[in-house]
Amino acid sequence: MTSRWGRRHRGCDADVMMRIDLHTHTSASDGTDEPRSVGVLAAAVGLDVVAVTDHDTTAGWDAAIAGAPAGVRVVPGVEFSCVVGEGERRVSVHLLGYLFDRAEPRFAAERRRLRLDRTDRGRRIVERLTTAGVPIEWPAVQRLAGGAPIGRPHIAGALVTAGASSTVDDAFETWLRPGGPYYVRKRDVDVRDGIAMVLAAGGVPVFAHPRARKRGRVVTDDVIRELAAAGLAGIEVDHVDHDAADRVELRTLAGELGLIMTGSSDYHGTNKAVPLGANTTDPQAYAEICRRASGTQPARC
Ligand SMILES: [Zn+2]
Ligand SMILES: [Zn+2]
Fold first, then answer.
1. 89-142 pLDDT tens trace
2. What pTM value is reported for the model?
3. How far is the CA of 18 from the centre of ligand 2 (A)?
4. Which end of the chain is more exposed for a tag (fewer CB within 10 A), N or C?
């Protein structure tokens, strides 16, 4: 196969000029854009590569690939929650898995379990809010989710519609913050098991926004060292929730541990303010992710 840069290759190559965003959400989870439009939106902001990493589901993959215009490569992926530590030291973390075989049974079963758990958790959060007199109804949350796994942004949207909050961000801060009276924890697997599941499905595990303190407690660098030893392939360095100092420190850590460094928008459409392509990944890092993957490869590679 000959690429548009004229080199013959198998698998993926990466031109130095490529613009790559490796973390986006569609309406298959808690984003607002349909999967089929992601490639077109990516092209409109000058991206060559866009990953679709919906929470707990690969339901958007096929439409995202089918809808992408010529010249835009779609990287199939997923984002899912895991935990590090127990009790007082428990930290919730997000893991991105890229280019895995979605039919691999153990990881597929975990994604299914996570989706069912989301519905259960969403119902319990709404029950707590209702008991406290907040005017929110479960069918309104379900309508906003439109069949996708229920996420807190859907509950936040219903709170805005009900007039209980002025914006989605306000709903998160007022009603849905971790540790708050209406918060219900997910039942997540240990992050080492999460990493092992992605690897066993031929995928590439990357730690999403490891310093995102506004989402709750974050792990220490020593935990990242342990995870690198357990098979973690990379860390997301350039992310809207990381300040300049975080990025410098994460780059140093990644260099020390030989981890791939990614950058991405974590785009959610109009559910969050960050635009597609707000942060990007170095083409060499992208090429390394493709090289390590055996589950699948980017579409139009
Ligand atoms: Zn995340
Ligand atoms: Zn995300």
1. 899 999 999 999 999 999 999 999 999 999 999 999 999 999 999 999 999 999
2. 0.89
3. 22
4. N
